Design the sequence.
């Protein structure tokens, strides 16, 4: 990962206008790709996704890189996150540049999450002292980005978002960045969930900053209310019972909105239906007591707006150690989703959580629009089509970043439910685990991708004899872009170390969780 830094130089205005020497750029360039990003001036050392195969930055990849970098070089991690928010990178309208091929494309809004993770990792390393100046600088710029999302990506003003591509390539039935074959738009379960998560991350940052500056309590209230409206929309889109939640299947789905007024749930069992789990935070009672203005607003809103809060996870009832819970899913929804997610015939692989349910291997999802069939089928390795990007595949493989967020979500939910909530893991095994233990189990499966098994083979190497046996190669482990959904073999770019380096964080987090569990067990005995 340290080797994947690269000096990246791209001046968009010069690319559009030319350098004054012949030949002149074609006139079409000024109305084509990246033509709205003439302010962009890149001349910096940046962490690349993979400088062999992807030698250009990608904003949401970089956010995950920084979380891994924070353990070895927090200064560089902070610098990278701030760089994407500087005025010669961020668009004047508040959008963060996505990647070279289309700066105006839409990636999941994970910048606030990454900044908070980097802050907390460094804070822990420094004995409780965090870099508040960094957090404040990030927060103020992200206010612009959050506003861009709210104003540009909520077509009907109902707190349901249509992000487009969102970095998940071929995850859906259609190319979500292009004109839909039936017209209309997609009300995205993942786009809306990412925004709920964004709201909670901004809330968490505001609460952290309020400890030294009480004026941030007002901003915290604003982001909490944003979250409430988004969570309400996920479960009751416009107050008439239309929802992204499908009660019978126990999953969230994208909904195709077609004119006039028609809505079609697209029942693809994919990571899109699991992303709502990301939007979860717990509030510590002592922190609430230190924020009296925010606490009053919270309690007033819960008491006086049951129309917005009644279908959400309970925020009034105190959980483990008197914590409050903020979550899109209530307990019943959480248990229903996990029943599917932890099923080895669906999402749970021996090596982590698949991006698409294995059920779609034998039961492809098909949607007919205007006489044309569009389908999605389980493909555990390379994509079988060049559409939607072609060089990556979200229809079955295991991706480290989305798994990492799921594991964090399970741990945060455990902070509220504790041992009162146990789930069957794997589904059908008659083995019941707390959410913390389930998070540990998924972590172990992901880590095992790189470990030698009982026969001395590393799944990531897919039986490559040279890499597995030769003493010069056997410990040089590649960090792939994604991994085969059934075998754990490395797929895609072979050195996309950036977000796959999150496995180091998983190892550390798992070690800490096991040590804490051992300490608790010893104390109880």
Sequence:
């Amino acid at each position: 990962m340290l080797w994947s830094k690269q000096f990246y130089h791209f001046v968009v205005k010069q690319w559009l206008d030319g350098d004054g020497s012949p030949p002149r750029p074609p006139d079409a360039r000024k109305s084509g790709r990246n033509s709205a990003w003439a302010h962009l001036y890149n001349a910096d050392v940046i962490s690349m996704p993979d400088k062999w195969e992807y030698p250009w930055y990608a904003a949401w990849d970089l956010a995950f890189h920084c979380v891994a970098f924070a353990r070895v070089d927090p200064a560089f991690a902070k610098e990278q996150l701030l760089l994407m928010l500087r005025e010669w990178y961020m668009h004047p309208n508040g959008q963060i540049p996505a990647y070279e091929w289309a700066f105006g494309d839409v990636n999941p809004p994970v910048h606030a999450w990454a900044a908070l993770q980097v802050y907390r990792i460094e804070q822990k390393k420094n004995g409780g002292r965090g870099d508040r100046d960094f957090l404040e600088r990030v927060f103020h710029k992200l206010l612009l980005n959050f506003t861009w999302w709210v104003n540009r990506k909520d077509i009907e003003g109902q707190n349901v978002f249509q992000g487009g591509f969102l970095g998940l390539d071929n995850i859906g039935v259609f190319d979500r960045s292009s004109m839909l074959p039936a017209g209309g738009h997609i009300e995205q379960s993942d786009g809306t969930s990412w925004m709920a998560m964004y709201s909670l991350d901004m809330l968490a940052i505001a609460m952290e900053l309020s400890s030294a500056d009480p004026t941030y309590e007002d901003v915290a209230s604003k982001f909490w209310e944003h979250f409430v409206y988004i969570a309400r929309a996920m479960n009751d889109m416009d107050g008439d019972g239309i929802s992204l939640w499908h009660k019978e299947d126990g999953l969230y789905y994208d909904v195709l909105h077609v004119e006039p007024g028609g809505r079609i749930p697209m029942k693809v069992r994919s990571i899109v239906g699991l992303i709502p789990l990301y939007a979860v935070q717990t509030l510590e009672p002592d922190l609430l007591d230190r924020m009296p203005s925010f606490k009053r607003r919270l309690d007033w809103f819960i008491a006086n707006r049951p129309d917005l809060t009644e279908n959400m996870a309970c925020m009034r009832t105190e959980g483990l150690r008197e914590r409050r819970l903020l979550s899109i899913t209530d307990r019943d929804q959480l248990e229903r989703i996990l029943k599917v997610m932890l099923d080895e015939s669906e999402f749970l692989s021996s090596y982590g959580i698949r991006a698409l349910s294995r059920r779609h291997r034998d039961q492809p999802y098909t949607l007919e629009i205007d006489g044309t069939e569009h389908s999605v089928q389980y493909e555990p390795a390379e994509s079988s089509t060049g559409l939607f990007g072609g060089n990556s595949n979200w229809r079955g493989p295991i991706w480290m970043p989305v798994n990492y967020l799921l594991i964090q979500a399970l741990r945060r939910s455990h902070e509220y439910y504790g041992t009162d909530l146990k789930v069957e893991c794997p589904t059908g095994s008659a083995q019941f685990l707390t959410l913390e233990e389930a998070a540990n189990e998924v972590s172990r499966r992901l880590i095992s991708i790189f470990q030698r098994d009982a026969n001395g083979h590393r799944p990531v190497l897919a039986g490559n004899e040279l890499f597995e046996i030769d003493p010069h190669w056997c410990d040089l482990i590649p960090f792939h872009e994604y991994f085969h959904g059934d075998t754990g073999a490395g797929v895609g770019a072979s050195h996309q170390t950036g977000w796959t380096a999150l496995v180091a964080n998983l190892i550390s987090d798992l070690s800490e969780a096991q040590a804490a569990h051992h300490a608790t067990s010893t104390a109880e005995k």
Q: What stands out?
A: The chain has a mean pLDDT of 90. The longest helix spans residues 502-524. The first strand starts at residue 5 and ends at 11. The chain is about 40% helix and 10% strand.
